[in-house]
Write a structure and sequence with these properties.
Blueprint lengths: L2 H17 L1 H37 L7 H49 L10 H11 L6 H28 L2 H30 L2 H17 L1 H6 L3 H53 L5 H17 L2 H27 L18 E9 L9 E9 L3 E5 L6 H8 L7 E6 L2 E2 L5 H7 E4 L10 H6 L9 H11 L1 H7 L20 H17 L4 E5 L7 H14 L4 E5 L3 H4 L4 E6 L2 E6 L1 H7 L2 H17 L5
Parallel strand pairs: 3-8, 3-9, 6-7, 7-8
Antiparallel strand pairs: 1-2, 1-4, 4-5, 9-10
The chain binds adenosine-5'-triphosphate and magnesium ion.
Adenosine-5'-triphosphate (ATP) binds next to helix 12.
């Protein structure tokens, strides 16, 4: 057995035993048992065949009939056991598979989901490692583990059969066959290593192909049809997919040629061994028992050359290594800061959240979205943030929530740098409707209580936020009320309108606030609301946000003007800061934007006067 292969097998075996001990040990044991039984058949068959002429002739040296019957009985018993093991193996490998698939799922998703920031999810290096760990196209860890028992069993067969050949016939033949097998498997392993290298070099294309697949199936099926893009999508998907795998196939084709050659060499070695046995038998130097045992043993060595097993185990190993490296890759490229636990986050912010000379550009981009921005959000204050599209408002929210770190400058919560706070605890303090809020394909209740899962059973609060957000009317109309699943692909599920969804998101944020969150962020909460819903929101806004530090982002001045303070974000900084009246009097950017919108409303609603 090639030394490299031993390492691969041991690595995967250790993993299998760790995540699915019972199933793994049982499959391995059964496969090895099968191999041992196979050798027992070889030995017993040899004995039976060798004894037959004597038993028929009934000569003086002949085996007593009683002993012969025992031999036959033994052979039969081995056959029976041998034919039972595959069925048991099926069950054992199902058990192993269940454990392994669960462990792989956790092993890949956990390191990606655990970090409280999200930079790593936009890092192509991390995404590539993740793609390799998932191991499409036959590079799958579970498939490698599935082959492991057979590979191990074939090792046992190789060694055992070699011993039989050596003891029964000639050690040089045994040594030759083992040497050729090891050499060929080692070479086969090298070929697979190269294939894995090629595959690792192509994960980006494969990632893109999977993205397109999800786009068509899940993320944007409606838009694709409206714009007639489905044909384009299919072509792009097939194109990217093929491009991603073509180099792997090319490599496999080349490998196939070598594999044929390997097979040829193997055939020659086996042929030489069988001829040697035949010659010895012909010359009368090898008794029948030995001939009848050696020949099947030689054939068994031939079958023990398990190129497919080696390849699958090696491919599985590539996925295993990627999965093993994933947490370290993330930790290395996106280190989590060491946090001090001495701050009482549960009451933060008691005074204020202060952005201090905060600059930011997204990872991999040179464009500075925020530049030396100073901004203070006082506790118990409703602050509105306005600015043109792309000004950086949502980015500021992401920094506030700790999804990204400032490139330079600090965000201080009651004087403590956000970087020093336990981010998970801080994020529980922040209730937010982000601009692209989540629409869970779950019940209305779940969609709301996800704002603070620890208070999931709190029906009073649920009823309260339903009133405050205006979803009580919506829920009343739904076929199963609060239990209606908000996704049409589920039985009895419905889809909500954009504005209704927005109210659900609002209810979720309010649920979090009533559960004790100290910061409320509303990024475009009114964008999809009709005029009346907007008016209601505005009316309640100050009431909803009393007692928390709130930040509202909106392009609608009806919403903005109610805030205690308004800040204008432009060129990456706060350029204006004051109440609605103060900013109008200042006659700057805010006043300009306000007048433009007001004018439109006037000309839109009173065309006669215009
Ligand atoms: N994940 C990202 N990676 C790189 N650049 C990004 C990313 N998200 C946003 N940007 C860029 O950052 C800038 C600010 O975007 P942001 O979403 O903060 O604007 P905004 O003020 O919220 O705009 P809007 O009013 O349209 O919501 C834009 O130029 C945008 O292209
Ligand atoms: Mg935005």
């Amino acid at each position: 057995m090639g030394a490299v292969t031993v390492g691969w097998v041991l690595t995967l075996l250790r993993y299998g035993v760790r995540v699915a001990p019972g199933g793994t040990l049982l499959t391995m044991g059964l496969a090895v048992l099968g191999s041992v039984l196979g050798m027992a058949v070889t030995l017993l068959t040899g004995q039976v065949v060798g004894a037959v002429p004597g038993v028929i002739d009934g000569g003086p040296d002949a085996m007593p009939i009683g002993e012969f019957s025992w031999l036959l009985g033994g052979l039969l018993a081995v056959f029976v056991i041998d034919s039972l093991t595959p069925a048991l193996h099926q069950v054992a490998s199902l058990v192993m598979d269940a454990g392994v698939v669960r462990a792989i799922g956790t092993g890949i998703t956990q390191p990606l989901l655990e970090p409280r920031r999200i930079e790593h999810l936009e890092d192509s290096e991390v995404l590539d490692v993740q793609e390799r760990a998932k191991g499409q196209g036959g590079f799958h860890l579970a498939q490698g583990l599935g082959q492991l028992p057979w590979l191990i069993a074939s090792r046992v067969t190789l060694v055992g059969s070699a011993v039989i050949v050596g003891a029964m016939f000639a050690w040089w033949v045994a040594a030759m066959l083992v040497a050729v097998t090891i050499l060929l498997e080692w070479y086969g392993g090298r070929l697979i290593e190269r294939e894995v290298d090629v595959w690792w070099g192509n994960t980006e294309e494969q990632r893109r192909a999977h993205y397109l697949f999800n786009l068509g199936m899940r993320d944007a099926p409606k838009e694709l049809r409206v714009f007639g893009l489905h044909k384009w999508l299919v072509e792009r998907y097939v194109g990217d997919w093929t491009a991603g795998y073509r180099p792997v196939w090319a490599r496999r084709k080349r490998n196939a040629k070598w594999s044929l050659l390997i097979g040829g060499v193997h055939l020659i070695a086996n042929g030489v061994a069988i001829l040697a046995v035949g010659r010895a038998a012909y010359n009368g130097t090898l008794p029948l028992t030995q001939v009848a045992t050696t020949l099947p043993a030689i054939l068994a060595i031939g079958q023990a050359n398990n190129g497919y097993g080696v390849a699958q185990v090696r491919r599985g190993l590539s996925a295993y290594r990627a999965m093993r490296d994933l947490p370290a890759t993330i930790a290395e490229r996106h280190p989590e800061p060491v946090v001090s636990t001495k701050h009482r986050i549960e009451t933060m912010p008691a005074r204020e959240i202060r952005f201090e000379k905060v600059s930011f550009h997204y990872p991999g981009s040179d464009l500075a979205v925020l530049r030396d921005l100073d901004l203070t959000i006082r506790a118990h204050e409703a602050l509105a943030l306005v600015g043109v599209n792309g000004a950086g408002k949502s980015t500021l929210v992401k920094l506030l929530g700790g999804a990204y770190r400032p490139t330079s400058g600090r965000i201080l919560v009651d004087g403590v740098d956000l970087a020093d706070l336990d981010l998970a605890a801080w994020q529980r303090r922040v209730a937010a409707i982000v601009q692209d809020f989540l629409r869970f394909p779950l019940s209305v209740t779940d969609n709301v209580v996800f704002g603070a899962v620890e208070r999931a059973g709190d029906e009073l609060t649920l009823a309260r936020v339903a009133r405050e957000s205006g979803i009580d009317d919506v829920v009343r109309r739904l076929p199963k009320g609060w239990d209606t699943v908000l996704d049409k692909t589920f039985d009895g599920g419905v889809d909500l309108s954009g504005g209704e969804w927005q109210r659900v998101a609002l209810a979720r944020a309010l649920f979090a606030v009533h559960a004790g969150a100290g910061v409320l962020v509303l990024d475009e909460p009114a964008a999809a609301l009709d005029v009346r819903a907007e008016a209601e929101l505005v009316e309640r806004y100050l009431e909803l946000t009393s007692g928390v530090a709130s930040l509202i982002i909106s392009h609608r001045f009806s919403v903005v003007r109610n805030a205690d303070r308004i800040c204008v974000l432009s060129d990456g900084r706060i350029v204006e800061d004051g109440t609605h009246e103060e900013l109008l009097a200042h006659d700057g950017e805010y006043a300009g934007m306000f007048r433009l919108q007001a004018e439109r409303y006037v000309t839109g609603t009173e065309p006669v006067d215009a």
